[in-house]
Amino acid sequence: MAESNQLIDLVHSRIDDFLKTRQPIVTSISPDLTPLVDFSRQFLSGGKRFRALFCYWGWQSVGTGAGGPGTGASVPDEGRLGAVISAAAALEIFHAAALVHDDIIDNSDTRRGAASAHKLFEGMHSDNGWAGSRFEFGRAAAILLGDLLLGWSDELLDEGLELAPDSSAARNARDEFNRMRTEVTAGQYLDILEERAWLTQPEAELFDRALRVIVFKSAKYSVQAPLVIGAALAGAGRDHLDALRAFGLPLGIAFQLRDDLLGVFGDASVTGKPSGDDLREGKRTVLIALAREAMPDAGRRHLDALLGDSLLEPAQIALLQAAITDSGAVEAIEDLIASHVAEALAALEGSPIGAEVTGRLVELAETVTRRAF
């Protein structure tokens, strides 16, 4: 735990230092652009830093840490960590960009218990009495903030790649980052597609289509890609990267399945989002696919009629939650989470990853899949 906290502190520091270098570039254009930096800081100040941790342990698994190959010894000094800390920080900035855009797409008013980016810009518009629609301004400004963060994540990654042990390692890490960026964008499109196209798809395909969204929108970029980027940056060979992929993908699926449960049943004080938010947004998740399969026709029609209604009342949310639970879908998701975690852990057996790092990855697997409601 102390080692993870130390690493998180280093990532925080790297992000802060990076933003300090970008602030004068932005504000020299106009002081009106100060909110872009201020809101960036706000969205980058919190979070559990799971992606940064997976990136670090992917790097450490190759043996670039202070204690030798895969030992998982205490965190080396920041100078020796420069490449992976920059890469880990770049992943966190990329994640922030994705959240800003995701909140726009989902019309989410909150993020981590506070106002989402477009709501912050709406507030600026209202407070200053500007012309036009505050909603249009908020949406447009937040899109640009997300774009800015995407560009910055690329710049910070490049700074880390300059510190890679050799050009081949840097090129491999860049390739993995680029692939991640493409996959998560494709996954986001598939997510919004399923919210609208599900009605025209064969019932038998809805589960697989929902699982495909999980894989590309979340599982790869939340767990698998950070692990592989970190390891590639350290010069890992193909067998080593394949072992991390085999661990990271099923764990990433389990991570998102847990998140889907939280999106329906989560306590707002824990998740930072209103309870049942995914129901209001109409998310066609694996949970919903399983619930629909098990429901009688009348229950399925009722679920379909209410899912995606942004004005759902708490009583309606409670009824939907009860119907989903009664269908057995929650138990089925818990079984899927357990089986995917078991698959991930099995992938570590006999792998080239050392015992100490394996232990850290097992701990992380527990942490990211056992989050409470």
Task: Write a short abstract of this structure.
With 373 residues, the chain is mainly alpha-helical.
What's the helical proportion of residues? Answer: over 70%
Strand order of the largest sheet: 1-2
Major beta sheet summary: 2 strands, antiparallel
Structural class, from helix and strand content? mainly alpha
Label the CATH architecture: Orthogonal Bundle
Q: Into how many domains do the coordinates divide?
A: 1
CATH class: Mainly Alpha
* Share in β-strands: under 5%
Low-confidence stretches: 64-73
Number of H/I helices: 16
CATH topology name: Farnesyl Diphosphate Synthase
Note the run of SSEs as H and E.
HHHHEEHHHHHHHHHHHH
Average pLDDT across residues?
92
| Ends distance | 22 Å
Please compute the radius of gyration using only Cα atoms.
Answer: 21 Å
What is the global morphology?
A: globular
Protein model, in words:
The chain is mostly helical. It has a single domain (2-369), classed as Farnesyl Diphosphate Synthase, CATH 1.10.600.10. Helix content is 74%, strand content 1%. The chain is built from 16 helices and 2 strands. It has helices spanning 2-27, 34-43, 50-60, 82-106, 117-128, 134-161, 167-197, 206-233, 238-265, 268-271, 277-281, 286-294, 297-306, 314-326, 329-348, 355-369, and strands at 110-111, 114-115. A two-stranded antiparallel sheet has the order 1-2. The longest helix is centred in the middle third of the chain and has 31 residues, at 167-197. It starts with a helix and ends with a helix. Mean pLDDT is 92; it is low at 64-73.
